[in-house]
Request: fold
Amino acid sequence: MLRHVAAGIDGSPESLAAAHWAAREALRRDATLHLVHAWEWHPRPAPSVPADMSQRAWADDLMTRVSDGIRAAHPAVKVLDRSLNAAPAAALLAAADQADVLVLGSRGLRGLTGFMMGSISQRVVSRSPAPVVLVRAGVGTCAEHLPAPGGVAPDEISQTLYRDVVLGLDTGRPCDELIEFAFDAARRRGAALRVIHAFSTPPAFVAADRLVRPGGPEMPAEHEHLVVAALRPWCEKYPDVPVAATVMEGRPAGELISASADAALTVVGRREREARFGSRLGPVAHAVLHHAGSSVAVVPHP
Reply:
């Protein structure tokens, strides 16, 4: 079965940014772009629905306008669109089940970088069987590329280099799905992969009238060894991807948020587990999604 890139559309500026990001990703993957808009009938339609138009007609018109705009901006991409009367979260999860990647738009935090996720986005990100990329309104080609010389826009120079792809790596739970997604993303962009591993030193304690610091001075070296071991098979599989690994003592979320400021894409993992009250994001992924300076890919893994 042919795979594709899917994007959720609701007519908002952030969903349009997500659709254009998804179109560029479809080009990178030589894949089809599927645009999905799900709507539910409501006795009081949203203010965006004109009084002289039914909700179904408005949904169909929205998809036509978005599809035409995507085809005009990305003529090399094959675009399929679908508007359906269904619960949005369920429809997006169904789309993700058939896609390589699902792309969603998210509102930027006022006055800050990062994302504001609604209840639908949170449910989809925490339960999607496929990687989900969150894109803010205003995130275009320029945000993914290094500055072009002479003030020329990156989309006017095809050779303009991409910014790094940033991967957050937990050596206690390294997983193939997460690492491969990051390497593949860097390869498709011709970009470097920057791997961030941050660790916390266990607190010191007093024993027999002396201060004991667990781990000792060799702890950073041990973490570096674990990072190298986790990355080695992927460096061999993707020999053309330049890799720079940073191992430091600190808070993983804070280090990733800092690195994301100059990234084309930040990649974090989400363990496929059921929490007491349903699926949820881990604390690092949650913090990165709320404060990252780049688009963020959340990759599910065992």
